[in-house]
Each structure stands twice: as structure tokens, then as C-alpha cells.
């Protein structure tokens, strides 16, 4: 077997789901992400791994027999719309490279070991971040999953059936519930490593974060004949709420984002009848998020009242501050060197979702731009290889 490299594998998938601006849109169980899944299965099969696609749409590539107390590594292949090339695939690819190199070196794991691809980590298709790991760990029930509808209108059970999966089998997965640990490698989504001049870091924690949906309703009407005092335009309180979100973040020293707005019916010469916006808020401490979001909601209600509109808020997801496992972190430090940088992150990950179920840890690879979820996201070939080497060293230690 020729030794695989992360950059060569990244090049193999570089055209899949690529947009004209160089960004990627690989939405869970849609054709580009399905193409990536097929690519993964082919590569893992080439390595002699045994493929299992589970009831939660996660793909497992087992080295030897599946079993309890397994060492798991992997990440996701889906992206946000217009995302970067590395967020997700880098972790999957480095895991494949680690396996290839361990096989080349004649390593024989003495524990069950699998590379896992988790479904809809971004939540960009079904609106629930870390969908696959939530389902596998029992954090989201089958009934909850059945209620999810993709943003393209397809109910989750139908998408499952279309992919050849039985939605009635969705549920907690023994392979996850009884695993010994999960290590996820990921491109860094910030400039921490670039500022330190180092290629690889060990993650310490994921900062708390949540997503909320605000549905504003007003009264649709004619853009030319409806006098200003007679309008109940829901777009105006949305605008005020977005500005309030920015101001609140600046005051609290945290981050808020409104990156998605739907205006109905969406006509240039029609005053909107409804407008929905999604708010994402993250901070060092959970109580800061709560305080900031409550303030924004208060402003939204006042703005809705002022414009003769109505607003309903729904929390769509919440992830508390998640510290990665101390024992694993120390083992990684021993393997990679005590001076390896350690960083926290504002981004959610499957490793954080699974942290309540098993010891989890993460490795970050330097991203010179610090940008993510956009085409500017990057990592040099050398750093990708450094990531793969670090992951291999850690996994090799864990499967001993
Ligand atoms: Zn990711």
C-alpha cells in the first residue's frame, strides 16, 4: 500500500459540491454529500475496513470486528451552504491517513477501532447541529428526529428512506454508548494557532452556544398604496432586533450572529406578512448567553409592539460549555509533547456532543486566515500532514 497523504485525499474530493466562488455546499444526504459518502466508503474499503451505515445515517469504518470499548475517530463530511474545504473532511481524511500509515507500519490495534463519519454535523440540512451524534448518543429521540423537516421541505423520515435507511430504527447506538473514547481532528476556526506560529493544538473546551428562531408576523399589503402609519411591516422589528443583537454582543464581549432571514411572501412590491430570523449566540459562560439573548428578545418584543406586529421565539438548540476529557488531554500531551498549544473554541463539534457519553478530545490544525464556514478557510498541505501525524500518534497510543 502506498502511503496516503491528507493533501492527496483532499484533492480527490476538491470538485465535489464546489461552488463557483470556491466555497462548498455539501448538505447532508443530498447528492454532493452522498458522493462524499460513497468516496469515503470506497477509500475505507480499500484500506480493508468494514463499513456499517447505521440507523442514524452515520458511517462506520471498522478496523477488524465492531465491538464495545472501541476507540473512535472521525468527523463529518457535510458543510454549511458556502462552507470551506476543510471543516469536517479534514478530520475524516486525517483519520483515513492515520489508518493507512498504521497499516503500513504493521500496527495491530488491540482494541476495536473505527473511523466514523457523523451525519449533518452542521445542522444545515435538518436544522439540528450534530444530528448524527445526538441521535447515536440518545440526546435526540426518534420522535424528535421524525419531526425535523429539511430546509428544502423534505421531512427527515422521507430523506432517510430515500437514502435506504429505515427512520423507525433511529435511536441510541451501542457502538457509541459503549465506546471508550472519541478523538476528532478539525481545522481551527480561529487564528489561535496562526498567532502562536504552531501547526497543531489540543482542544480544551467548547464554549456554550445556542440557536434561536424568532418568527415575526405582521400584515402583508401593497407597497405603493399603504401609507406608512397604516403598515404592520415585520421586517422592521427584525432589523431592530439584528442591531440590538450586535450591540448586546459588543457590550457583553461575546458573539451574536443573524445569518439567516426568511421574508414572506418575498415580493419587491409587497409589504411582508411574516419574517423569520435565526439568532446564534456564543460566549465564554452560559449565563452570559442567557443574559444577552434575554435582552435581545426583550428588544424584539418591544420592536414588534411598536410596529403592530407579533413575535414568537423558539430555542432550536442549546449546548452548554463542554470541557474535553482531562485524562485524554493529558495522554495527548504526553504523545505530542507537553508544549503542544491548548485552545478553547466557539464552534460546536460532534466531539462536544459526545462528551457526555464518553471521554472525548480534539486536535486542531492551523488555519492561517482564521476564517471558517466560507471559501477563505484554509490549511497548508504541510499542516494537514502534521495533523494526520498527530492524529496517528494519538490513535496508535489509544488502541494499544
Ligand atoms: Zn466541523
Automatic annotation (TrEMBL):
Gene3D superfamilies: 3.30.70.360, Zn peptidases. InterPro entries: Amidase_Cbmase, Bact_exopeptidase_dim_dom, Peptidase_M20. Keywords: Hydrolase. It comes from the Bacteria. The keyword Hydrolase applies. NCBIfam families: hydantase, PRK09290.1-4. Belongs to the peptidase M20 family. This is Allantoate amidohydrolase.
Amino acid at each position: 500500500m502506498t502511503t496516503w497523504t491528507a493533501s492527496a485525499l483532499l484533492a480527490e474530493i476538491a470538485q465535489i459540491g464546489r461552488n463557483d466562488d470556491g466555497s462548498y455546499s455539501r448538505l447532508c444526504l443530498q447528492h454532493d454529500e452522498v458522493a462524499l459518502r460513497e468516496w469515503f466508503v470506497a477509500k475505507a474499503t480499500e484500506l480493508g475496513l468494514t463499513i456499517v451505515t447505521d440507523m442514524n445515517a452515520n458511517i462506520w469504518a471498522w478496523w477488524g470486528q465492531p465491538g464495545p470499548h472501541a476507540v473512535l475517530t472521525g468527523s463529518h463530511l457535510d458543510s454549511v451552504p458556502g462552507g470551506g474545504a476543510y471543516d469536517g473532511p479534514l478530520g475524516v481524511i486525517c483519520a483515513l491517513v492515520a489508518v493507512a500509515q498504521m497499516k503500513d507500519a504493521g500496527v495491530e490495534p488491540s482494541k476495536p477501532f473505527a473511523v466514523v463519519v457523523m451525519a449533518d454535523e452542521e445542522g444545515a440540512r435538518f436544522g439540528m447541529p450534530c444530528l448524527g451524534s445526538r441521535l447515536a448518543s440518545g440526546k435526540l429521540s426518534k420522535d424528535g428526529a421524525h419531526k425535523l423537516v429539511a430546509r428544502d421541505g423534505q421531512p427527515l423520515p422521507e430523506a432517510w428512506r430515500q437514502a435506504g435507511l429505515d427512520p423507525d430504527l433511529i435511536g441510541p447506538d451501542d457502538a457509541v454508548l459503549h465506546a471508550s473514547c472519541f478523538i476528532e481532528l478539525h481545522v481551527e476556526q480561529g487564528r489561535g494557532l496562526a498567532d502562536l506560529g504552531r501547526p497543531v493544538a489540543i482542544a480544551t473546551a467548547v464554549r456554550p452556544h445556542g440557536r434561536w428562531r424568532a418568527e415575526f408576523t405582521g400584515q402583508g399589503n401593497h407597497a405603493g398604496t399603504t401609507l406608512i402609519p397604516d403598515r404592520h411591516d415585520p421586517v422592521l422589528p427584525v432589523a431592530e432586533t439584528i442591531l440590538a443583537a450586535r450591540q448586546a454582543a459588543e457590550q457583553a464581549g461575546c458573539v451574536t450572529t443573524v445569518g439567516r432571514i426568511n421574508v414572506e411572501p418575498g415580493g419587491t412590491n409587497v409589504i411582508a406578512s411574516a419574517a423569520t430570523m435565526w439568532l446564534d449566540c456564543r460566549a465564554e459562560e452560559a449565563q452570559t448567553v442567557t443574559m444577552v439573548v434575554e435582552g435581545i428578545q426583550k428588544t424584539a418584543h418591544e420592536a414588534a409592539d411598536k410596529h403592530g406586529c407579533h413575535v414568537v421565539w423558539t430555542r432550536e438548540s442549546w449546548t452548554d460549555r463542554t470541557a474535553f476529557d482531562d485524562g485524554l488531554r493529558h495522554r495527548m500531551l504526553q504523545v505530542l509533547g507537553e508544549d503542544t498549544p491548548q485552545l478553547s473554541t466557539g464552534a460546536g463539534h460532534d466531539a462536544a456532543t459526545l462528551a457526555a457519553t464518553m471521554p472525548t478530545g480534539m486536535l486542531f490544525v492551523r488555519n492561517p486566515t482564521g476564517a471558517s464556514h466560507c471559501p477563505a478557510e484554509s490549511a497548508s498541505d504541510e499542516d494537514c500532514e502534521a495533523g494526520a501525524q498527530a492524529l496517528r500518534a494519538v490513535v496508535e497510543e489509544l488502541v494499544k
